[in-house]
User: What shape does this take?
Amino acid sequence: MSGPSSSLHTRIWREDAQADNPFATRAAHCHGYDVYGQMLGRARWVDLLYLLFKGQAPSPAQARLLDALALALANPGPRDPMVHAAMSGGVGGSHAAASLIAALAVGAGQSGGARDVRLAMDAWQHWVAAPTGDLGARIACLIAHDSPPWLAPSDSGWPEREHPAGFDPHGVSTAGIVIQALQTLAGMGVGPRLSWLHEHLGALEAAATLPLAMTGLAAAAFADLGFTPMEGEMLHLLLRLPGAAAHALEQQTVYGFKRFPYPPIDLQDDPLVKRAEESVA
Assistant: This one.
C-alpha cells in the first residue's frame, strides 16, 4: 500500500512511513541526513536551519556565524514596530497566532523589515561585481538611488524606496547594538562582506548620510553565509519572532493594557496640563 508520502514532491525532506500507519512517520531525512536518528542530540538548531535552506551542512565557522546572527536578531525589542505589533495583539487578548501574524505583517516591510534585508542583499550582490580596489564603486553599489535594486519595479506592489536599503532613515548615529554586533560578526572571518563593512563603515555612512541599520548588517551576514536575497528575507522574519512572542505574552499575562508602553506623545491642549495650570493659578 502506498502512503501519502508517495504524492509529495520535495528535494528537501524524505519521510518513511510506519509499516502499520501510512500517515505516521517512521524516519525523516533532510537532504540525506537522518534528522531523528543522527542529528537529534548531536546537531544544533542552526545546523538544521542551514541544511533546510542550502541543502548541505554548514561548516563550523558558518554555524557559529549563523548562531551569533540568530542571537543578534532574536529580540528587536519593544521599540521595534514588529515587536510592538505583537505586543498590541497580546495586550488585546489575541490568540498566539494572531500576535505572531501581526508581527510578521509589520516586520515584512522595506523600512527596517525583511524586505529591506532582501533589497540590501541585492545590493551586496552588485557589490561583489564592483572592482575590488575601487572603494567608491563599492560604496556606490550599496547606496545608489537611481538604479536597481533601490527602485521597485512598477508591477512589484512595493512603493519606491525613499532611502538606500540597510540604513536607518531616522538615525543620527550608528546604534550601539549595531556596532557591537558588527564587531563580533566581522571577527568570525566568514565571507568578505562583514569584514569590509567593518573596515569601511565610516566612509559608507558618510556617503549615504545615514547610519547603518541592523537590517544592513544582517544582509551582509546572510550574504556571507551564502543565502540568496529571498532566503535572507525569509530567515529575517523567522529569526526575529522569539522576541515578538515573548513580549506579546508578557503584555497579555503580566502587564495588561493599563501598563502598555505607549510611545510618549505631546498633546496640544492636554487637559491634564490645563488642569494643573489652572490649579496653580
Summary: Strands lie at 13-18, 21-30, 33-34.
